[in-house]
Every structure is written in C-alpha cells, then in structure tokens.
Specification:
Helices cover 50% and strands 9% of the residues. With 395 residues, it is mainly alpha-helical. A three-stranded antiparallel beta sheet has the order 5-6-7, with no helix packed on it. Strands 1-2 form a two-stranded antiparallel sheet. α4 runs parallel beside α15, α7 packs antiparallel against α8 and α11 packs parallel to α13. The structure holds glycine (GLY). The site of glycine (GLY) has 4 residues, from loops.
Length: 395
C-alpha cells in the first residue's frame, strides 16, 4: 500500500482507489462500516419518537414522522431488526421490540394492502430473528386481514380505496402490491392455511397477466371491474406517464417475482424476474442508481431514486442465486455490488450530522405530486441494509 501511495504522489487516495480497484475497501469492510453507522444513527433516531410515531423522511433538516397507519411505518422497526441481526446489540434489540409493538393495531386491520409491508418488516423480522413465538400471531392475523381485500372475480388483492389524478378507479391494483405477498406466504408456512398461499399465487399470476408490457416494463396501476374482472384502465400515479417505467415500480416487480419464485417454486415467476432485470439493468446510469423514472424527459438532469436502487440491489442478489444462467448470475451480482458501493459512498451515504440520522440521501417518493423529492426515505434505508446483509450472506 505504501509503495502504491508513493506511486500516486500528488493524487488523492480516492483517485488511487479508483485507478487500482484491488485497493478498494473490501465488501465485508463496507458492510461493517455501514452497519456501524446505522447502529449509532438508528439509536439516536429513536430519541425523537413518541409512543405512536415512527420516522418517515426529512424535510428542510427536520425529521418527518408518520403514524403506524402510514404504509412505511414498519420500515424503522424492520431496519432495527436488521441492525440487531448484524450486531447482536442489546440496546438495538430493545428498540426493535418497542418500535415493532407500535404497529400492532395495524396488524389487526385490513385498512390497506400495505399491511404486508408494515407487518412483515416489523413482526415478521422479529419472528425470524428471535424465533420468539410472541411475534407469531400478529403475522397470521395481518395475513388473514389482507386476504379480506382479495376478490376471486378479479383474482387480485385490491390496493387502494381511493381514486386520484382525475381518474375514477373501481378496483385499483398496483405493482407495489407484489411485495405484500411475502406476508401471505410467511403466514401460510406458520399456520398451514392453504388459502393464504393460493391467494398470493393467484395475485401474482393476475399481475403477471395484466401489468406487464411486451418489453417487461410494468404499468403502475391496473384498474379492474370488480363485477366481471375485466381491465378498465392501465395508468400511473407516481411515474412520469401512463406508459413510462417508474423506477421504484420496476424494482418492486423485480423483488416481488424473485420472492414469489422462492416461495412458490413456480418457474414462470423466475422467468419474469429475469426479464424485468433484462429490461432495467441496461437502462441504469454508470453508477447503478436509476433516475426516478426510466423515461423521465430530463435525463440526465432528472432526480435519482436511491430507494429504487436499494430495492433492486437486494432483489438482484437474491435472483443471482436462482438463475440457471451463470453469466446472468454474475451480471446480477456485479450490478448489485456496484449499486451498493455507490450507495455506501459519500454521494449517497449521508455524513454524520446531516440527513436527520437516515443513512441514504437522494430518494424520490412521489415526484408528480411534488412530494418527497430528493430526500431520505425509511424504506430506502431498509432495503439498503437488507441488501448489505445479503451481500454478506447473513440473510
Ligand atoms: N408503495 C408506495 C411507493 O412505492 O411509493
């Protein structure tokens, strides 16, 4: 190293590391570094919370909180469980338990399809990492509640109970909803209730049939007629246009179908996950972090979305273990590693004292609504930590 630094006289260490990648921080060291930061920041973050609030994002250097009923409420406890898995820190364990209990009421209601995100990240992780049966029943209760939003006529779980953007939806189903199926599969394993699995698999098939275009990009929203299951319209709420490829939506699809292949063994789900990867990987900028929409008109000046990158990295690492093609496995792993290196670098990993204790900067929540643009988001941190654990072989 000394000799290399002499060679690089006059150049910065960062430049040396760029030119001689062998000198780069190892992946293990990178994971250790980020989790050290996470342990300290996520502990401090709790000090700003009340008994029924959780971190959501930050605005103008102030932490923005959410109630347990907001769709992202499970990600903070979920991240605490990931930090506990990596560090075994007893203080983090106590915070993870406390913040998981905050979302209990949500597990008992079928208020929205996001009960899957909320419950699986909090109670689901608690059960997986402690094996303590006190966390088990809420997972099953929430899955049963989620099934109340399923209709055999549409073959899908209803996402929203509202219409927006001048549209009238009768039975909207969004690509994001694929993520909620993991809760059903987990609860099926825990309870042996066949209908939980059947509903998850049916929803995945309905989404496969209706949300995807011929290039395997996906629509954000498909609205069904609940009377006969026919499709009324296909559009977007959070993407650039009805026909564009909203970046986080593509990541939800990639992750959702990879997960459903793991859970069901249905090869068609693996095939679609690989086709989604085939659509998005070639469209990534050089550093691996997508623009908020792959068709944003102002690329390369459009905002990036670190949340879409983190979800994608986590999914690609899992997919690399399932694909039968060695070259694809290498590509998925290489892409994910590149994304994680970028996210772990100074351009995206916030310096201490900024970003209200969140890890990642530069995420986009809902750009068309002018909401949460170029901000930290609790779910970006969650999937970032998850991807790092996967990289390290800990999940
Ligand atoms: N599931 C909502 C979003 O991705 O913004």
């Amino acid at each position: 190293m000394k000799c290399l630094l002499n060679l690089m006289k006059g150049a910065s260490l960062a430049a040396a590391l760029f030119i001689f990648p062998a000198c780069r921080e190892s992946a293990d060291a990178m994971v250790d570094r980020v989790f050290d930061v996470a342990l300290s920041r996520y502990t401090s973050m709790d000090e700003a919370l009340t008994t029924l609030t959780l971190p959501r994002t930050a605005q103008a250097d102030s932490l923005v909180l959410c109630k347990p009923s907001w769709w992202t409420s499970g990600f903070y406890p979920g991240s605490l469980w990931y930090i506990y898995l990596k560090t075994s820190d007893p203080g983090i364990l106590a915070l993870a338990e406390k913040n998981t209990r905050k979302v209990y009421a949500e597990t008992q209601a079928a208020r929205s399809h996001d009960i899957g995100f909320v419950t699986n990240c909090s109670y689901g992780n608690a059960l997986r990492f402690t094996a303590d049966t006190i966390w088990r029943q809420p997972v099953i209760d929430a899955a049963r509640a989620l099934c109340r939003r399923y209709s055999p006529v549409t073959g899908a779980i209803r996402s929203w109970d509202f219409s927006r953007g001048g549209k009238t939806w009768l039975y909207p189903v969004i690509i994001d909803n694929m993520m909620n199926l993991e809760l059903l599969m987990e609860a099926y394993r825990l309870s042996g209730t066949d209908s939980l699995r059947a509903i998850a698999v049916a929803h995945a098939h309905t989404t496969l049939k209706n949300h995807f275009r011929s290039d395997c990009s996906s629509y954000h929203v498909v609205d069904f007629d609940p009377a006969d299951g026919s499709v009324r319209s296909k559009c977007t709420l959070q993407g650039y246009s009805d026909d564009s490829a909203w970046a986080r939506g593509q990541s939800w699809g990639l992750y959702g179908y990879t997960m459903m292949f793991r859970e069901s063994g249905e090869k068609v789900f693996l095939d679609v996950a690989e086709k989604i990867a085939g659509f998005i990987i070639p469209r990534l900028p050089a550093d691996g972090i997508p623009y908020w929409d792959y068709d944003a008109p102002d690329i390369p000046d459009a905002p990036r979305d670190a949340s879409a990158a983190a979800i994608m990295a986590s999914a690609l690492l899992e997919l690399s273990a399932y694909t039968e093609n060695k070259g694809s496995a290498q590509l998925y792993r290489r892409t994910a590693l590149k994304q994680l290196r970028t996210l772990s670098g100074p351009g995206y990993l916030a310096a201490s004292g900024e970003n209200c204790n969140f890890l990642l900067k530069h995420c986009v929540g809902n750009l068309p609504a002018g909401s949460e643009v170029d901000v930290p988001l609790s779910y970006a941190d969650y999937y970032f930590l998850e991807a790092l654990l996967r990289l390290r072989g800990l999940l």
